[in-house]
Structure formats: structure tokens, C-alpha cells
Design goal:
This protein is mainly alpha-helical and 135 residues long. The protein is built from three helices and two strands; from the N terminus they run H-E-H-E-H. The protein is 51% helix and 4% strand. Helix 1 packs antiparallel against helix 3.
């Protein structure tokens, strides 16, 4: 029986942080290119990527079907789909960045990133306390 130091919640928070960092980078690039002619705003497929990273439905795990097979289950890589945002209007110069929406998305993502980070810090503090109390 193997022991995992971190639980599913910690793994979920870590995956969320990684994906929020990617979303931050994409949104920042959109903002930086707000005045670039013919630039098309990008969007991150956050929810699907997080579900795949967490393997919530178990479809990403490969199982051993024979006693001589190795179990290959494990964490899938966190690689969200990044695509052109279809939900935006095209400006006269061909640019599709809505600066107000992008700034709002960046602020929201930043708040959620900080919240996940605080939760991880609290879990680590609880582990540290538990370890120090066993001595």
C-alpha cells in the first residue's frame, strides 16, 4: 500500500494554481496586444483542463488488466486548450481584445489564485502543526 503525503484537495489546489498561472499569462498577453492590429484574443479552456488534471471521472487512469501488467495510472499533465476567443467582436483594425473584459478577467483570476494559495498555506500549516505535536 502506498502513502500519499498530500490529499486530493491539495492536488486540486496545486492543479488550479498551475492553470491559473497559464490563464494569467494568456490574459496578460491579450492585454499587451490590445492595440496590435489583427491580433485575436486568446482564451484558456480552464474547467476542462482542471477536470482532466484531477481526473474526476477516472477516464484518464489506465488500469492493469493482467497480473503481469504494470499499473500506469497517475496524474495527467496540466495542458489546457488555448484558442482564439469566439465570444468577442472584431474592431476596425481586426483586433478582438476587449480591454475591459480582459482587465476584469485578470483581476478575478488573481483573486482566485491568491485564494487557492492561501488554502494550500493553511493545509501546510496544519501539517506542520500535526508534525510538531507528535514529537
Amino acid at each position: 500500500m502506498s502513502s500519499n503525503l498530500f490529499d486530493k484537495t491539495t492536488d486540486a489546489l496545486a492543479s488550479s494554481l498551475a492553470l491559473r498561472q497559464i490563464r494569467h499569462n494568456v490574459t496578460s498577453a491579450n492585454i499587451a496586444n490590445a492595440e496590435t492590429p489583427n491580433y485575436h484574443a486568446k482564451k484558456v479552456d480552464f474547467e476542462d483542463a482542471l477536470a482532466k488534471a484531477l481526473d474526476m471521472d477516472g477516464t484518464n487512469n489506465l488500469g492493469a488488466t493482467h497480473g503481469d501488467h504494470f499499473a500506469t495510472g497517475g496524474k495527467p499533465a496540466v495542458e489546457p486548450g488555448i484558442y482564439e476567443n469566439p465570444d468577442v467582436a472584431v474592431n476596425n483594425d481586426g483586433n478582438t481584445v476587449d480591454l475591459e473584459k480582459e482587465m476584469s478577467a485578470l483581476a478575478e483570476n488573481s483573486i482566485l489564485y491568491k485564494s487557492a494559495l492561501q488554502l494550500i498555506n493553511k493545509k501546510m500549516a496544519a501539517m506542520k502543526y500535526a508534525i510538531s505535536e507528535t514529537r
